[in-house]
Give the backbone structure.
Amino acid sequence: MPDWQSLEEIQKDGLVFGRFMHTLLGLYIWEWFTSLDFDWLYISGKKKFRWPLVFYFLNRYCLLFALIGIAIALNVTTEINCQGLYTFNQCFGNAAIGLASINLSLRTMAVWSQKWYIVVPLIVVILGHWSLLLHGILLKAAWIPEQGGCVITETNNKLLAVTFIYSMVFDFVVLSLTAFKLIYPATGRSRLVELIFKDGLIYFLIAFLANLLATIFMLLNLNPVMSIIANVPAAICSTIVACRVVRRLSRFTSKGPEVFASTTQGSTLAFRSNGSAGIRPPKMPAVHVQMDTFTTHSPTDQPYLAYDAAGKIVNDNAESYDPESKIISDEFKRPPY
């Protein structure tokens, strides 16, 4: 077993860390580029922008900027403001972690139809998560000429460990709530629920395992490099799966309307790209019934009596109705000459 605290091992781990970060940067750029068409639909105005997408765009681009900053810190050869650069990286990296948890929480709120007893506790947990993330930004870095680069000189490893433990528990709660609602629905499952059940739980599980791995390395505290080597992969995994959750939900709701059970009504959280406020039932085709009606009129139905030129009643049946009509007509049909 290697001596993790030895200078030789730390230098070797630092070299591995640098190459690993470049690999992760390439992986995330590939993920970002292959899904850029979805972003362009909203940036260009082809699809109507909805408020949950604010967290989606912030999540994607905060992590992208953080990874670019990490690449600069690893490759810089001239003296720069290391404190400002590392503060920038930490700020955007922690924001990406918090935003990924928000995006996953929005899916859980959607599954539970925005019930207040689910939404309110999740908002409280989100606020607690962000308080830890913002405290984690406080670190110190400086340019060390002997090492030819920026080095973190002071950080709070205990706070980082607590932050990742909190993130892990948070993701587990979100995963449990989503799984419970999907496994034991109050009514039958709609296509949306089937979609979430098939791949949504996998996304939640990946985010949970990524934070679990980062927490394990933080608690082992083998050396300064190994303690943080899984932090960036955890942020990338959480961001990728959270953004894919948002894209799949948005693309699903843009395919067309569907009749959902009561457990999933309003569960799209305004992700729809069309103008409808919610999910509307499909219009059923109209059924036209054509009938031929036949009526039989009785003599009493005729409102008037018809006479010919001679003064006689044309309809004989009418005479039975008004027996005096024939007498009157016979009396006055000819003049007395």
